[in-house]
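=== RUN LOG ===
request id: a7f3
mode: sequence -> structure
chains: 1
length: 169
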Amino acid sequence: MKPIKIASVGVAVMLGACVGTDIEVTSPFVPAQAAYVNQRGAASVRGQAFMRQLGGGVVTCAGEKVRLIPATAYARERMTKLYGNPQGGRINVYQGTSGKNLPPAYFKYMRLATCDAQGNFEFNGVANGSYYLVTRIVWMVPGSYFAEGGSVAKLITVKGGRSQRVILN
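=== RESULT ===
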């Protein structure tokens, strides 16, 4: 009977991780505060996202979306609750959110890029302002049914149309 209980617990953990937790944000999402993300600017934001495994191997965000999210009051509260810090941070694959309470307009006010095989990403024509860069870095270990890795986020500020390079890890 023990193997069945262990398997049941493993399935419950996997299902729970897929669902994610709900985050309650009290700040309203105000589209006008996020509108600058859709303005054409002079800056480029380039970067690379990766995580180092316990054995020393490096895994990139290859094929994953990178989000450039305006750092509105709503986004700052959400990121602080999710990552434990208004500057962003790192969470493991089981600490994700369900997205249940996200306002539909939130997705209209962000830009997306895709990581290449080396984990590089690029946003061109970025307007001045503060943004969160967010992506997932997830991998499987042979012989395991559970994903490893997680998500990373970092608060950046574009000033004076100056381009920048960012490392997410």
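=== NOTES ===
The chain has one domain: 20-168.
The CA atoms of residues 63 and 115 lie 5 Å apart.
=== END ===
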